[in-house]
Amino acid sequence: MTSPPRTVPSGTGSRTTATATAGTPAARTGGVLARVRGTGGPRHPGRARRAALPYLLLLPAVLLELLVHLVPMVMGILMSFRSLTQFFIRDWSRAPWTGLDNYELAVDIDRPVGRALLDSFVTTCLFTVLSVALCWLLGTAAAVFTQHSFRGRGLLRALFFIPYALPAYAAVITWAFMFQRDNGLVNHVLHDQLGLGGAEHTFWLIGDNSFWAMLTVSVWKTWPFAFLIVTAALQNIPGDLYEAAALDGAGVWQQIRRITLPSLGAVNQVLVLVLFLWTLNDFNTPFLLFGRAAPEAADLISIHIYQSSFVTWNFGTGSAMSVLLLLFLLLVTAAYLLLTGRGRKDADAR
């Protein structure tokens, strides 16, 4: 049977009626929802301050980011539309407006400027691919080799981290002395001690050999970063997987192929992208090895843009090249993230 509805005496008034209504489950639920949505009463000042605290802590970093990166980027884009030379350095806003002329000059491969930029771009892409591949290969191999505990592992890991711990300027300048033709350590070991390449010492910092010298320095100082990232990622792979695979008869190479590499997929996605961006934008290595004028075989696009801007004093063309490089990096990064993200979704769906 359904119980009859309660009647509220008329003498209690509207206050009693409101109290009885507020005590129902629906009213209590509505009150909770109202408080969750922020409409159940006045907001406390302390709660508002706590909510704003993270944004206040981020404000100095955001301001510095705007000051250090975004403001120069916007100024560089504006400079790329002007004929900015040494005659307008005091007030670059007075430089004549040229529109897209600087961009047309940079991409016109039939003219010397565009042809030189294309050669530099091809050299940079080849250098980046080789450097990233070798850094990833060496870092992964070293991380897998030192994954299991053995005597002296800590010391070996510390030695691996030395190139990454050294300041870039000290490391590259040291290599520049080692690559000297007459009194460098590289020629002394190869020619004088091992007898390789004949008695005539090799020129490492000029000619075609400059590319391989630059690649050696880049890999030497960058691969420990890949080793560090992969070593940290290997700690998250359960050891039970390797034990089960060993019981099933899987060898070392099969374990690496079936367990290690698939488990490192997400980490490798980020690692390769970071190494690609670092290497493609590397300016310290060619500048410290070769100075302001790198050999043609080692003319990376970063040093090429520097020469176009600060050696020939054509800041407008140099800014246009920088903007084109930025667009290329954005395009490659977006395509890489799209392809790798789609590949991971397909793998998860299987």
From TrEMBL:
A Pfam family this chain is assigned to: BPD_transp_1
Membrane topology label: Multi-pass membrane protein
Family: Belongs to the binding-protein-dependent transport system permease family.
Official protein name in the record: Sugar ABC transporter permease
Transmembrane segments: 53-78, 121-146, 158-178, 211-234, 259-280, 319-339
Gene3D superfamilies in the record: MetI-like (1.10.3720.10)
Keyword set, alphabetical order: Cell membrane, Membrane, Transmembrane, Transmembrane helix, Transport
Chain ranges of the ABC transmembrane type-1 domain: 121-336
Segments for region (Disordered): 1-24
Domain of life: Bacteria
Biased amino acid composition, Low complexity: 9-24
Region forming the signal peptide: none
Subcellular location: Cell membrane
Upper lineage: Bacteria, Bacillati, Actinomycetota, Actinomycetes, Kitasatosporales
